[in-house]
Amino acid sequence: MDLAQRRLTKFEWESIEMPESEKEMKILKMICNGYHDLNIHHNQTTSILSFLKMDVSLLNAEYLNCINVYIYNTYLTKKIDEIVKTFSKKGFVFKIPEPKTKMKIKKADMIRFNSTKQLNSDIFEFLLLDEIAHFYKNKSFHYFTLFKLFQNNIKNLNSFVFDIVSYFLQTFETEVSFKEIVYNCNEYIEKNEILTKYSDVALYDHQKQLFFSIQTPNPKLIFYIAPTGTGKTLSPIAISNKFKVIFVCAARHVGLSFARACISMGKKIAFAFGCQTADDIRLHYFAAKDYVKDRRSGGIYKVDNSVGDKVEIIISDLQSYLSSMHYMIAFNSPDDILLYWDEPTISLDYPDHPLHAVIKKNWSENLIPNIILSSATLPRPDEIGNTIDDYVTKFNGDVLTVESYHCRKTIPLYDNVGSVVLPHLITTDYHQMKDIVNNCFQHLTMLRYFELTEVTNFIQYAIANNVVSQQYILERYFTCLDEITTKNIKMYYLNILREITEDLWSIGGWETRPKMEGEYATLITTKDSYTLTDGPTIFLTENVEKIAKFCIQQAEIPQKTMDDIMKLIEINNDVQEKIVILEKRKEDLQTRGEPREQTKSEDLENSKQVNIKKDNENAKGVPAINRELAMLQQLIKPVFLNNIFIPNKLEHAKKWAPTANPGFTSDIDELTIIRIMTLEVDYSWKVLLLIGVGVFSTQTNADYTEIMKQLASEQKLFLIIAHSDFIYGTNYQFCHGYLSKDLAMTQDKTMQAMGRIGRNGTNSTYSVRFRKIEQIHTLFYSAQDKPEVINMNRLFC
Question: In sequence order, what DSSP letters do the residues of 78-90 get, joined into one string?
Answer without folding.
Answer: HHHHHHHHHHHHT
